[in-house]
Every structure is written in C-alpha cells, then in structure tokens.
Amino acid sequence: MALWKADPTFYASPRDAVAGPPEKLAYVAAFDRAAQEPDAIAVLDLDPDSPSYGSVVGWTDMPYTGDELHHFGWNACSSALCPYAPHPHVERRYLIVPGLRSSRIYVIDTKEQPTSPRIIKTLEPDELAKRAGYSRPHTVHCGPEGIYVTALGGANGDEGPGGIALLDHTSFDVLGRWEVDRGPQYFAYDAWWHIAKDVLISSEWGTPSMIEDGVVGELLLGRKYGHSVHFWDMRKRKHVQTVDLGDEHQMVLELRPAHDPTKEYGFVGVVVSVEDLSASVWVWHRDGKEWAAKKVITIPAEPASADELPPVIQPFGAVPPLVTDIDLSVDDKYLYVSCWGTGELKRYDVSDPFNPVEAGSVRIGGIVRRTPHPAAPDVPLSGGPQMVEVSRDGRRVYVTNSLYGSWDDQFYPDGVGAWMAKLDSGEDFAFDERFFPRGEDFRGRRPHQIRLQGGDASSDSYCYP
C-alpha cells in the first residue's frame, strides 16, 4: 500500500540516518546445514531495557528445506527519496530473502507482526531463470527503481555468467536482467553503487560449482576465483571498466561505498592471497577519468602447527585471517573487518580512506584460538566473526559466526556451532556481556546475515549529503 508521506525510516542523508532512533529488533537468517529442517528468519530483541534483551523473540520457518538462506535485504529504503526515484511512496516493510542453494526468493512481511514475520510470496527458481537468466541469488539491495538481486549462476544449469536481476518494488515480480551490456564480466558476488554519480560497482566470488562443496584447492592455488572489481554506468546499465587486483588476491567479496553521496570511493575485502595467506582491504577511487584500486590494509596469517589445523590448510602451517565481511559506519568513519579464520574483529578509523588506522580489535572463536565470549569464559567457541552489521548511529556492532555450510565444515570440521554477539563501539570497543544468544537459541540452525529494523549501515544509500 502506498503511503501519503515518506516512510519515517527513510533518511535523505547519512547525517539524518545517524540521528534516527535506535533499532529494537534484528532479523537473522538461520539455516539447517543438514537440510532436514526448514531454514528460518529469527527475530532478536535489541532493546536493552527489555526483559527479553538478547533473546530470540520470534521465528519464521520457510516452507521448504535446503534453501540455505544467506544474504537478504529490504524491499525499499532511503534510496526511494532520490529525486529521480519512481517509487517515492513505498515503505520499508518486506524482507527479500534468497536461498543460495535452492534459488528461491521469499518475500516476508514484517509490518503487521514484527516479531512474527509472514511469508507473502515465493519466487520459484524457474521465475528467476526465465525472466532474468540467473540462478543462485546472493545479495539484495534496495534501489530507487527496484530491488537489485545479485546471482552467482546462469540459468538452466549454466555456470554463468552471474549478474544482477531487478525485481519490482511493489509486486516483487522479476522484471528481468539488469545488465544491457555486461562486457567481460562473468563472475558475480556483491553489487552496490555511488547512487548520486550513476556508478554501480560489482565484485567476484566464483560460479556455483566453485563454491558449492567448499573451497576447491586446485582452483584456489590455480588462481581461478574472482580477483577483479567492475564499474558500470548505472543509468545505461553498461559495463565501463574492470580493475584487476592481481590474480594472487582470490575472492573479492563485500563492497562498501562511502555513504556520503558526494564521494567516489569505497572499500572491498579480499579473502586470501595465495602467496602468503594474508587477507586485504582495498580502496577504490577515481583516478582522473578512470577507476583505480589501492591496497590499504593487509592482515597477515598466523603461524600454527599442522596438528592444530583442519586438513584444508594443514600443508600451509598457518591460519589465514579469511576476511569474509566488512562494514562501513554510516558516518564513514569506521570500517569493521571480520577475520573469520583467526577469530578477530578489527576496527579501523578510515577518516582518511587511503591511510586506515587500527582503532580497536576483539578476539572471539577462531580456527586455533577458540576464544570464549566474556559472558561464558569457560566455553571455547568455534567459528569466528563472520557477518557484521552496524547500527545507523555507529554505536552498536553485531556479528554472527557461520559463513556458508560447506565452508564451515572445511575450516571448522569439528562443528562451527551457532552464536551471535554484540559490541559497543565508542571510545572503547568491547563486547556487551548481556548479549550472547547461542546454541539452541537458534534451534539447531546456523546464523548468518543480520538486518536491523529500520535500516543499518549496509542496507541504505543516500542521495543528499
């Protein structure tokens, strides 16, 4: 239903978003690795004054098994306030939730009963294949003219190319393939934009067979995973330029553009270098009329004895950091970097994006360290900080511990467990000991993507400075 005035959770500028009210609920994708039970959206209480703070207070099962819910997003957000947006009266109401293994996409209504979201539509795999030519939907971003869904695979069993499908804001129908001229782009993963500059950026992981059953050692050492960032004309939907980071830098994943719409830079994380197992973060930027990228953060591997390591990395004698997610605060001051392998969440001051300064770090989990949460100091934890989400005001940071089912099993073969944590981010950077849902709180599922009620640091883009 159209609104007579703009949704109050839409913000014209990052400044307005930071000043908005704090989130009260989180929606978390939780999947059953065994595919015996349906995946679910768990609802968590984030109100520190609530008696159920830090608890799972709602749960919505999917109607099928084996979806592997992964990344998801809102149907509409602050980009609807852009001056050229054709849908100014939509509302942030529905979660668009893809299954990475099943290729289904669920539309879930959070408005009437926020703690009991209701599935109102299911897009079957053949609709995505027939209308857009894609499979394996991965990431969702709410744009001014529709819902952008990146996909890793092609249709009808084709490995690729992956790309972007566009969905209608209101009917949620698949409108079609976004790209008009994709140029040399083949691999897909994330996509985001400098919305006021009509620039879209996309990144690279691999095709479905390259990721389905875990990392393939031969492909990794052969430097066959994605290692480039692509730049597009967003209005013409045309590929403009590829920036290759070097084929030693394997798996170029999460994109975090500056929220300030007058800026043309952003950050992208690289999972691993095959030369030394380090991970890295790069800043992309304008260099004259072209785009360029510069490595600004390098995180080294940590030495370990072979008997401490899972088989996949035993020959290397070290734990790779495995940077699998990054997130940029809405004021563009802090970049948070998840090191899923070593079990560390790093905070960098990126006020100068070309010269980040580490401004805090916490340890939890990790392949070797198994660092406990301070709320349960005698319980070693598997997994590490993986998905990271930041509140709009930048004061609260949430993390979950599962990456992707088959990859969890490779790097944490004794079990990755299930947990979620919250950190307070201010002068200090430390865990909130009152917030630690874990284990059976998630009913045997593994938690992954987090979305905050009313928007968060990786959900919205802004058209006004």
Keywords:
465 residues, 4-stranded antiparallel beta sheet, 5 helices
Explain this structure to me?
This protein has helices spanning 14-18, 125-132, 208-211, 217-221, 405-411; strands at 25-31, 38-45, 56-65, 73-74, 94-98, 105-109, 118-123, 134-142, 147-154, 163-167, 174-177, 191-194, 199-202, 228-233, 238-244, 249-257, 265-273, 279-287, 290-299, 302-303, 318-319, 323-328, 334-339, 344-349, 357-363, 388-390, 396-400, 420-425, 429-431, 446-452. It is mainly beta and 465 residues long. Strand 5 (94-98) and strand 6 (105-109) form a beta hairpin. The longest helix has 8 residues, at 125-132. The two termini are 29 Å apart. The model has no long low-confidence stretch (mean pLDDT 97).
The residue fraction in helices comes out at under 10%
Q: Write out the strand line-up for the largest beta sheet, numbering strands in chain order.
A: 3-2-1-30
Give the strand content.
35-45%
Q: C-alpha Rg, in Å? A: 20 Å
Unreliable parts: none
Indicate the overall shape: globular
Largest sheet: 4 strands, antiparallel
Structural class designation: mainly beta
Terminus-to-terminus distance: 29 Å
* Continuous helix count: 5
Calculate the mean pLDDT score and round it. 97
Give the number of DSSP strands. Answer: 30
Write a brief caption for the model.
The chain is mainly β.
Topology of helices and strands:
Elements: H1 14-18, E1 25-31, E2 38-45, E3 56-65, E4 73-74, E5 94-98, E6 105-109, E7 118-123, H2 125-132, E8 134-142, E9 147-154, E10 163-167, E11 174-177, E12 191-194, E13 199-202, H3 208-211, H4 217-221, E14 228-233, E15 238-244, E16 249-257, E17 265-273, E18 279-287, E19 290-299, E20 302-303, E21 318-319, E22 323-328, E23 334-339, E24 344-349, E25 357-363, E26 388-390, E27 396-400, H5 405-411, E28 420-425, E29 429-431, E30 446-452
